[in-house]
């Protein structure tokens, strides 16, 4: 079998296995994400696996660079990736995406035993406060865009054509009216 046929078969299998699983996400036909752990779990992490053109004969690209993993230290990420890489070497030549996701789920506690959440919110707020002192104070409220009532919207729609443009000559001055009013002033 060619690499493409293997990939197509594995893609079908992944779709049927993970159908309805909120933790699984297909980013493209060759790239997948899986959240290990429940939503809100401080030890949860996200693994992204992308297939190369010659996968499964060559190893897939495994990444933990998702924003979801910002609270995990780089040392813990490297440790998880190293353990997953060992599993890749054992399974090289076979369809392994499901195997890798399940291996990560089974070993989640072991992977995250040295995990101490990094409080990224404070570091982000420090960066923001350092970068923003030159801006105007935020005490001024932004003007809200005026909301139109249904009647106002309808009236506006009646004035415009199907493209939303006003008809030709909408702002032309009525020459007859002007000439009449002008003649009264002359008298």
From TrEMBL:
InterPro entries: RWD_dom, RWDD4, UBQ-conjugating_enzyme/RWD. Residues 132-167 are annotated as: Disordered. Residues 9-111 form the RWD domain. CDD domains: RWD-RWDD4 (cd23817). Residues 155-166 have a biased composition (Basic and acidic residues). It comes from the Eukaryota. PROSITE patterns: RWD (PS50908). This is RWD domain containing 4. It comes from Oryctolagus cuniculus.
